[in-house]
Amino acid sequence: MFCSFLCSECQVLKAIHLRNCIMRQPFGQLKVTVVQGKRLVIRDFKSSDPYVVLKLGNQMAKTKVINSCLNPVWNEEHSLSLTEPVGVLSLEVFDKDRFKADDKMGKAYLNLQPIISAARLRHLVHVSSGETPLRKIIPDSENCLARESSIICINGEVVQNVWLRLCEVESGEIELKVKIVDAPSR
Ligand SMILES: [Ca+2]
User: Fold this and answer.
1) What are the φ and ψ backbone dihedral angles of 170, each rounded to 5 degrees?
2) Most Cβ neighbours (<10 Å): which of 88, 98, 120, 178?
3) For residue 118, what are the domain limits?
4) pLDDT computed for residue 22 by the predictor
């Protein structure tokens, strides 16, 4: 990739290459609990068979399918690696079908910057025991929040409780609990 004498052009390329390698190193785990869904849309005759697909960068996780239910409870935790630059957690709900392609039931996204910043703040102020509120995020046109979301530190762990409003669909909300493990100390 680089010439043996490392000319100035190669030195620059090598520096960029090294920086990109460092930036892509995982620096923690994101634990996402898909708690439940409310008022999901009907995609079969009277109900739907919903499941949730989570995506972060090129990582993907799926919940199980809950048959014939518009207010499903999953309570499933999935782990995703956090790498720099931290992207957006996206979520899509589908109706499982046996004899045709699964139907879309809406999508939403969650900006992870607030919880990452809160995790770094936690390291700066050495919050470690008990329950400490760190930040509140209010719903606006720039996010998918259905209601106010709080980021708290519980016994050293940074957790965000969030209700996301599904878009590109008539109705539906999804509750997530997002937690950072091995948070960055930078
Ligand atoms: Ca179905």
Assistant:
1) -70, -35
2) 178
3) 27-181
4) 45
